[in-house]
Specification:
Helices cover about 55% and strands about 0% of the residues. It contains 6 helices and no strands. It has helices at about 10-25, 35-50, 55-60, 65-70, 85-105, 120-130. The protein is elongated, with a radius of gyration of 16 Å. It starts with 10 loop residues before the first helix and ends with a helix.
C-alpha cells in the first residue's frame, strides 16, 4: 500500500505511530501493527506493576519491556526536577499509543506492516537528504 492509498482518516494516527516507534521496527522488535499492540500491552502490564505516583528512576532496574518504552523518551536520569517522571505519567502515554494503534488496526488489520505506515514529512525529508 502506498501513502496515496493510505486512508486519509488514519494518516495522523499512522504518522504519529510511525514517528514514535520506527526505532522498534528498525531493531526488529515489531513488524506489524499486531506486534506493536502486543508489545505496548506488555509495556502497560510491566509499568502497571508499580504505584502510579512512584518515580520511574527509582524502579528503573526492575522494568522489563517497559524500559524499551521509557527509553523512547530519553534517559529518565535527564528529567526536569520540577516534573519528575512517574509511572502514571508514562502510562498515560502508553494508553494514548494503544488507542492510536487500535484505531489503525480497526481500519487496516493486525497484519498491516509497520513499514507501510505513512512517514511524517520531517522523517521523509531526513531520509532523502541522508
Amino acid at each position: 500500500m502506498t501513502s496515496k492509498q493510505f486512508p486519509q482518516d488514519l494518516t495522523f494516527a499512522g504518522e504519529q505511530i510511525y514517528s514514535a516507534f520506527w526505532s522498534w521496527h528498525e531493531n526488529g522488535y515489531i513488524n506489524t501493527l499486531g506486534d506493536l499492540l502486543r508489545k505496548l500491552r506488555l509495556v502497560e502490564y510491566d509499568m502497571g506493576r508499580f504505584d502510579g505516583d512512584a518515580l520511574i528512576i527509582d524502579h528503573w532496574q526492575y522494568l522489563r519491556v517497559g524500559i524499551d518504552y521509557v527509553e523512547l523518551f530519553g534517559n529518565p536520569n535527564d528529567h526536569d526536577d520540577e516534573l519528575p517522571l512517574t509511572f502514571e505519567y508514562r502510562l498515560e502515554n502508553v494508553d494514548e499509543d494503544i488507542m492510536y494503534v487500535e484505531e489503525l488496526i480497526e481500519g487496516l488489520s493486525e497484519s498491516f506492516l509497520f513499514d507501510d505506515l505513512p512517514k511524517p514529512k520531517c522523517m521523509t525529508a531526513q531520509q532523502t537528504v541522508a
